[in-house]
Amino acid sequence: MTPNDPLADLLASGKSPAEITAEIAADAETHTTPCGEGDLVWRRWGKGRPLVLVHGGSGSWTHWVKQIPVFKRDYEVWAVDMPGLGDSHMPPVPQIPATAGMVLALGIKALIPREARAHVVAFSFGAHVSTHALLHLQDHVADFTLTGAAALGLPQGPGKEFPREMEGMSDDERMEVHRALLELLMFKDPARIDPLAVYLQSENIRRARFRSRPFARIPEIAQNLPDVRIPVKAVWGGDDQTAWPSVEARYDVIRQGHPELVTRTVPDAGHWVMYEQPAAYNAALSEVLSA
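The structure corresponding to this sequence follows.
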């Protein structure tokens, strides 16, 4: 915890991670749009120009838990649970990023008027799904900001075996599995992995039904992004473990279709940059949204 953490007071309050998460969620209005045989679940905070936040794989709206308290002051923040993740139902078949993107696009069209000119900001696998969505939305939104995206046609680096929960584990052992996964994939500095991060990771994994990892090596963002005809921006953690061989290589691929690309790299931050370095990420995102 640092003084620049927007959740500093809540984290110091003695409340449990579940209580902190519930308190933030209780401040939202919940909306639904169609998703397969059920609903796509959205949460809305604040007033102003719409800002759509799309989380990463095996995640939920809670990937943005340290952005919502800040951006709701000036924006109408919409945080979605992507198809098959969080509280949302699975997308229609075939259950692939393209169909999930169509569901997302239809949800944005239903909830946010074209004239509102929403910003879309997407993390990791959320950027993959959002790129498909934007092929259907185009100038229904103002711009698209990517963070920590794969599916760019670049090597993924050495494969890593993810730790997993095993039958018979105690609660402490299960939480250690999720802490180890955060250290392996999501954080640059393990000392910044706090109980809230471990709780959010464990809850998100527990509810995840759409398995996004197999799609990370499919270069669909690189293939489709040139056909997205709105300004594109990027904010990355400078030490993102998934950005192999480098963050700059990721920017170079995006620039091939979008030479106007505006970038900010947050130093001393891993893949889940918006949680690990929230003040720096929030400042960088504010800058690119204003650019």
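The beta strands are 29-35, 38-45, 49-54, 75-81, 118-123, 141-147, 232-237, 262-266.
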